[in-house]
Write a structure and sequence with these properties.
The protein is α/β, with parallel strands linked by helices. It has one domain: Vaccinia Virus protein VP39 (Rossmann fold). 23% of the residues lie in helices and 21% in strands. The protein has eight helices and eight strands, in the order αβααααβαβββαβαββ. It has an eight-stranded mixed β-sheet. α2 crosses α6.
């Protein structure tokens, strides 16, 4: 069986204190709140973002994350701002998005300028930090990283000290706050072997690292799973159609 997540039955998950998502994992049709639908339908979103929605399923993953109006969200490695442009609308004027890029530990060639229009939201603070000195505002409701946790294991970023990095996330969250990790699935028991070459990571390694920082895995979702991905191709070759895991880790309330 290709996917690690599929090896756990609902009964086994319950025994571990972990629930599957109420959507794809159980075949139900989840009810997406209007504030999420409106943020995804926002007309200022670039067409290039909209073209990716079918694969990235923003309504369902944000529903899974539980981001809502008024939330304080830390977004790590936001890339071109695909989710940033949605988050800022979801949290609204009473919330805030802290979009933190991670500085490479090596010198990279300059990247072409983005042709995306400026983000009209005013509730975003953008920052750039090194992985070794990550410092986020305290009391965050959610910290989010998508499709790039694996990158932190690569020489481009040091590689990062993942225990220190995950602990910085833990300390930034309020009690009960959640850390959402979405990334490209690597083969079973592959660890960090494919992070540099295929840009994939073993989800079991992610679980071990994040839990070691004090988090509890409380939910995982199959909404981004794809059975047609053999886990042996570079993610860029599949043009957004990779098999991905989606985890929700929680900082204990006490």
């Amino acid at each position: 069986m290709k996917g690690i997540l599929c090896t756990l039955t609902a009964t086994a998950l319950a025994a571990l204190g972990v629930s599957a998502s109420s959507g794809a994992a159980q075949g139900a049709s989840p009810k997406v709140p209007g504030y999420i639908k409106a943020a995804v339908a926002e007309p200022t979103r670039p067409q290039a973002d909209r073209d990716r929605d079918a694969d990235r399923k923003p309504e369902l993953v944000i529903l899974f994350a539980g981001i809502k109006p008024g939330d304080q969200v830390g977004e790590l490695m936001p890339g071109g701002g695909y989710f940033t442009r949605i988050f800022c609308r979801v949290v609204g004027p009473s919330g805030h998005v802290y979009a933190v890029s991670i500085k490479p530990a090596v010198t990279l060639p300059p990247r072409p300028a983005s042709d995306a229009p400026p983000n009209p939201c005013t509730n975003i603070t953008a920052d750039s930090q090194s992985a070794t000195d990550l410092s986020l505002p305290s009391g965050l409701d959610v910290v989010w990283t998508s499709e790039n946790y694996h990158d932190l294991h690569n020489k481009m970023f040091g590689p990062a000290d993942m225990k220190q990095f995950d602990l910085a996330v833990f300390n930034a969250l309020k009690p009960g706050g959640v850390f959402i990790v979405e990334d490209h699935m690597a083969g079973v028991a592959s660890g960090a072997r494919d992070t540099e070459t295929l840009h994939r990571i073993d989800p079991e390694l992610v679980k071990r690292e994040v839990i070691a920082a004090g988090f509890k895995l409380v939910r995982q979702s199959d909404v981004l799973r794809r059975t047609d991905d053999p886990h042996t191709a570079k993610v860029f070759e599949l043009k957004g159609k990779t098999d991905k895991f989606l985890f929700k880790f929680q900082k204990p309330v006490s």
